[in-house]
Amino acid sequence: MTIAQKPVRNVLLADTAPLKDIFSYRKYWAARFGTAPFLPMSRAEMDVLGWDECDIIIVTGDAYVDHPSFGMAIVGRLLEAQGFRVGLIAQPPWQNADAFKELGRPKLFFGVTAGNMDSMVNRYTSDRRLRSDDAYTPGAEGGRRPDRAVIVYSQRVREAFSDAVVVIGGIEASLRRIAHFDYWSEKVRRSVLIDAKADLLVYGNAERAIVEIAHRLASGSKISELTDLRGTAFVRSSIESPWVEIDSTRIDLPGPLNPPLDPYAMPEQGQVKKTGVVDGAVQSVRFNRENKLQDRRMTVIRMPSYEAVVDDPVLYAHASRILHVESNPGNARALVQRHGQREVWINPPPIPLTTKEMDRVYELPYARIPHPFYAEAKIPAFEMIRFSVTIQRGCFGGCTFCSITEHEGRIIQNRSADSIIKEIEVIRDTVPGFTGVISDLGGPTANMYRLACKSREIESACRRPSCVFPGICPNLNTDHAPLIELYRRARALPGVKKVLIASGVRYDLAAESPEYVKELAQHHVGGYLKIAPEALGEGPLSKMMKPGVGTYYKFKALFDKYSLEAGKEQYLIPYFIAAHPGTTDEDMLELALWLKQNGFRADQVQAFLPSPMATATAMYHSGKNPLRKVTRQSEDVIVPKGLRVRRLHKAFLRYHDAENWPILRQALRDMGRADLIGNSKRHLVPNYQPLGTGKQSEGTRRPQKYQAFKTQHTGLPSLPTALPKKPVGRLRRPKPKP
């Protein structure tokens, strides 16, 4: 596939024009058919609706749940609100093209997505083992979607209708828009746009782009002409004038805004620092920001080619850094990366939705239940979110191992409190099985609602990857008052007994607002609250861009204080990552000792999974730190690779599991810490091995004595049936009875 040779329209000139509301378009003529109870999944449903064809067909790897927590439902209902007839093909058998012909050829285009999750993350563990279940499938049945689903689905669409327009999107396509390291094959793969042979890729939250694509195709435009849309990527064979190319290696050091806090920050208002290398010496010049913005309008950054990053991990890390530097919608430039004889062109990120637009998106006529096709089958992902409400999008945390910022952006998109309250009332009055408990008010994080930069001008110029690392930016508004008021309004609604917060709390931000912690602890926690310190050591924390343990203690003190005031016995559940770049064996040992000292016993362990396009993945692949300028001599990063070391780091997190004692004993001896092997409280692991666990050559003891030892030295049985009277840390919760 190649894009017709036409000059690309100016991507950034539109930035000076008034932003067009996504609901302000003139509706397509098919709006006369009205709203469908569910988007049709069969010809029979189309006949009932009076349709002879679909305008747009969405192909997804998830079961169809008509709920705003599912991407296909949001996009489908949004396009329906524009007047288009939208059909849906959910989890089609991919072995041949028959299922892709079910609804016929769409008049405008196929929209292809792997679903709410990346198909590889969905199907494989961090140890590359095949998962047996899939939360987005009826009955949690595994194996209902293919590996690299976007590619496979797109190929089957081409087999079914060779002349159809194919637009790919969702998180899988979004995170693979450039050449990317693929953990499951341990190699760098091409842009998914090339492999899927798609006409266009939309990345991030794609409402603006997908609405514009639909209306322009409906008005007669060709897909090859849609090259000016933010949040899209496409393929062409060359770059024509008047575009000016800039080599990415010449823009790798933005100047500081609040030096020396962060290498991505910008200098004082109105100026930018440009840095280059001349004769081996760093040269810096200042120039007017306004002139630079003028230059951006017809500037494209030339990234290292696919062939170059395949052969050179250092260049891969550099390319990853550039992609993240150019991620702010206020100052990002177009990117281009050559793949063989073709160019993958990536337009700047989409402009975030306004509160008014967000409200209307979430107030569309969702049925809020799975399609009747699934009858009484349970879909675990739906069961988890059926009584939850999304209040925001985006995350400015910038954690290097997380894909939220790369996908949704770092600018928080908020709904109004009135719209959120209205949705809670809809759940209360219409959703079957509601018992009075709202399971979550949140989003990517629980407490970034209405938090933003104090200055729009600074926000549009900033290049920091995080607003909260290495410390909370002084330009960030951390006022939790709007969120506190929302919580109080929600729990005061008639018929609402409890409003829980299940999204992860960003505790460094929460600690800035004791009033918020009080509201949270006394009214919105059901005994346990999830937070994510992720690590203790400075090495891994600096590579994760996470706060130190001192912030955790500050939050814990507030949480315990207000829980005690309310007469509640509540516990924090901290989560940690094993084998993250920057982590040494000594770091994991320190963490294991901290867990034992604080009485935490992890039931499940999260090992680092290098997801495509994440900054930590670039560290994993290259051994370099792309949070700073990447050169041959730049900072090296320790990377725990291989099954043995990853298993060891996970074992440290589950130091209490007898299956892990042999590997831990050997590691402690190798580290010169044999003093931690013994049978007293001060030891990490005992010097015996229970029957039926680990290696029998280590020495054995009867399981009854092993159980007595655990109870004696931890104060806890292994599977408590009730909360203890005194806090002792994280506990295993008993499984609910069916």
Question: What characteristics describe this protein?
Answer:
738 residues; 10-stranded mixed sheet; 3-stranded parallel sheet; 25 strands; 14% strand; globular; disordered C terminus
Question: Would you kindly provide a written description of the structure presented here, covering whatever features stand out?
Answer:
With 738 residues, this protein is an alpha/beta fold. It contains 25 helices and 25 strands. The chain folds into 3 domains: 13-239 and 312-346, no CATH class; 246-295, no CATH class; 387-655, tm_1862 like domain (pyruvate-formate lyase- activating enzyme), CATH 3.80.30.20. The strands form 8 sheets. The chain has a 10-stranded mixed beta sheet with strand order 2-1-3-4-7-8-14-13-12-9, with helices on both faces.
